[in-house]
Amino acid sequence: MGTSGTFGGSKNGLVPSWVDEPASPPAAEPDSSEQSIKDSDGLDQDGEMPINPPGSTPELIYPPIPAIPASSALSGARGNMTRGARSSDERAIRRGAGRYVRANGGGRSTSSRMPNSRAVAGGVAGLARSFVNQGPAEALRRFNLESMTGAPAEDVFVALTDMLCPAGGSIDESIARDAMLETVADLAASGVGNFDNLSADDLREFFVGVVSRSIEGKILNEVGTNAISAPSSIAGVERAQAMLHDFVEGCVRDEFDARGTNLNDLDVSAVDSFVDDLYIATLDLVEALGDNG
Fold it and tell me: Which pLDDT tens digit goes with each residue over 172-217?
C-alpha cells in the first residue's frame, strides 16, 4: 500500500481538542410547569425580579442538552481503537477504523455523512484541474483569489480554506476545514514555494492529503473521542493518531492511483462524481483492510 507523498505528512499527530475534557453531566428533565413569578408584586420567592415580568409570556428554561450516549453499534470500533491506542497496536487501530465504516453501513453510507468534506475536496480537485490546463491565475479566478497569483502556496491555500469552508458551522464543516488546514501545514513544512511554481504532483498530493485528513477526522470525531484519548501520555495519543493517519492515507492513495489520473485530465463535469467515487471506494477499502488486519 502506498503511503509516501511528495511533501509527506506531519511528523507528529495533532492532539485533538477533546483530550482530557470532562464529560457533560446528565441533565434533569425540563419542567415547563414551573414559572419564576411567585408573588403578585412581580418578585419571586427570593425577592428577585424574575426573567419574565408579570404579564409577559413565560420563557421556558431548558437544561443543557446532555451528551449523546455512545452508540452500541460503534462499541467494537471504540474497543479496538482503545486497545490500539494503549498498546500502540497498529492492527487494532486499523480494525477499529474498519469496524467504524461497517457500523455505519459501508463506504457509500459513511461517505454520505460527509457532504462538506466531499464538497471541499471537489473544490481542490477543480483548482488542480484548472491550474494545469489554464494556468494559476485562471485557477484562482474561479474563487475570486486571482490577486494572490505569485503568493506563497500556503497563503493561497489558507485563503482557499476560508472560501471553501469558513470558520463556524456544523461538525462536518469543521472537519472539512481542519482537513484543509492540516494539509496546508504539511505543505508549508515541506518548503514548497510560490503557488505559481506548484507542479501537478504537488496539487495531487494536496488533494490526497485533504481527502485523507477529512476521513481521519471523521473517524476521530465519532470513534476516537474517548478511545484515542485513552493513553496517559500525549505521546501515546500522537502515536495512535499517526497510525490512523498512515492507514487512511494509504487507502486513499491506493484508490486514487488505481484511477490513473492526475486530476487535470478529468472532464469538468466529472470532478464531483470522481470525488464521490473516491470517498466511497476508500472507505470500502478501510473496512476491508481493517477486517483483515
Answer: 899 999 999 999 999 989 888 899 999 999 999 999 999 999 999 9
Cell numbers found for residue 41:
408584586
Average pLDDT estimate for 238-254: 94
Number of domain units in the chain: 1
- Asked if residue 56 is part of any domain, the answer here is no
Look at residue 54 and tell me if it is in a domain. no
- Residue at 203 is within a domain: yes
What are the tens digits of pLDDT across the range 97-151? 999 999 999 999 999 999 999 999 999 999 999 999 999 999 999 999 999 999 9
Residue 228 is placed in which grid cell? Answer: 484515542
53 is a domain residue = no
The pLDDT assigned to 132 comes to 95
For the residues of the chain, what is the DSSP string, one character each?
Answer: -----SS---SSPPPPTTTTPPPPPPPPPP-TT--S--STTS--TTS---SS-TTSPPPP-PPPPPPPPPPGGGHHHHHHHHHHHHHT-HHHHHHHHHHHHHHTTSHHHHHHT-HHHHHHHHHHHHHHHHHHHH-HHHHHHTTT-GGGTTSBHHHHHHHHHHHHS-SSS-HHHHHHHHHHHHHHHHHHHTT--BGGG--HHHHHHHHHHHHHHHHHHHHIIIIIHHHTT-SSSHHHHHHHHHHHHHHHHHHHHHHHHHTT--STTS-GGGHHHHHHHHHHHHHHHHHHHHHT-
Confidence at 60, pLDDT banded by 50, 70, 90: very low
Judge whether 93 and 80 are in contact, CB under 8 Å. yes
**Does pLDDT of 75 surpass 80?**
yes
> Are the C-beta atoms of residues 214 and 282 closer than 8 Å to each other?
no
pLDDT value at 23 more than 60: no
Which residue range(s) make up the domain with 205? 79-291
